[in-house]
Amino acid sequence: MPAPEVPAEAGQRILVALDVDERERALTLARELRGEVGGFKIGMRLFFRHGPRMVEELAGVGGRLFLDLKLHDIPETVAQGVRALVGLGAHIINVHAAGGLVMMRAAAEAARTEAARAGVPAPKLVAVTVLTSLEQENLSRELGFGDDLESVVLAWAGLAKAAGLDGVVSSPLELTALRAALGPDFLLITPGIRPAGAQLQDQKRVMTPAQAVRAGADYLVIGRPITAAPDPVAAARAIVRELPASEAG
Ligand SMILES: O=C(O)c1cc(=O)[nH]c(=O)n1[C@@H]1O[C@H](COP(=O)(O)O)[C@@H](O)[C@H]1O
């Protein structure tokens, strides 16, 4: 039976991180998974090898496309970087919240004005907060943060909202607090997703797909549990089956 073109509702929440080296492999994965999940993420691994053209090619496959380059620099540099990315076809672009309020404001303004100038829909702009590969000890002992991790995530997310961004990327562990603080319309995207019993690899702050949806995630970013599986379509289907249908959509 051929895969349906439009995935079941619960699957719409999943964005598959296409962290592979080869252009053909990325496109094949995207085409095979298109009917199972809501979309795809292109990050530095594919982008640095294949460039903006890869974003355009993946946009052509369909589904939501998240361009994850975690822009973090002075405001003008990030604003010009965002301008160069708007129009490639990505629906979501991220910057790093650690760049601060003025940087995020400049990025949001650049996304809006460039989209209007080019006559394309403005992408959602979201801010990465504390990476899911870090835990409290990394923040306090290595990086010198005085605050607890959840407070840092909440503070950075508050800045992102004040700057006019559409949402944040966080670990699933902060979703409940973020949703309560930032309201129903702020986009909450979470990597750090591992089905029960799966290898954590370099992820530290994780939940299962079902737990993350129940905690309020709009999108789950899932990479290796799907892309490194012997049968990525079967792996995606197994994850979608785990999701609470009534809360998805
Ligand atoms: O911005 C991201 O997407 C991101 C932020 C974060 O805090 N943690 C994180 O894992 N990611 C990305 O999410 C994906 C997770 O992949 P897996 O660990 O293979 O499921 C990778 O592409 C990461 O680059």
TrEMBL record:
InterPro entries, sorted: Aldolase_TIM, OMPdecase, OMPdecase_AS, OMPdecase_bac, OMPdeCOase_dom, RibuloseP-bd_barrel
Top-rank EC class of the record's enzyme: lyase
GO molecular function: orotidine-5'-phosphate decarboxylase activity
Enzyme Commission identifier(s): 4.1.1.23
GO biological process: 'de novo' pyrimidine nucleobase biosynthetic process; 'de novo' UMP biosynthetic process
Active site per database record: 68, 70, 73
Keyword line: Decarboxylase, Lyase, Pyrimidine biosynthesis
Biological role stated in the UniProt entry: Catalyzes the decarboxylation of orotidine 5'-monophosphate (OMP) to uridine 5'-monophosphate (UMP).
Name of the protein: Orotidine 5'-phosphate decarboxylase
Organism of derivation: Desulforudis audaxviator (strain MP104C)
Lineage of the organism: Bacteria, Bacillati, Bacillota, Clostridia, Thermoanaerobacterales
Gene label: pyrF
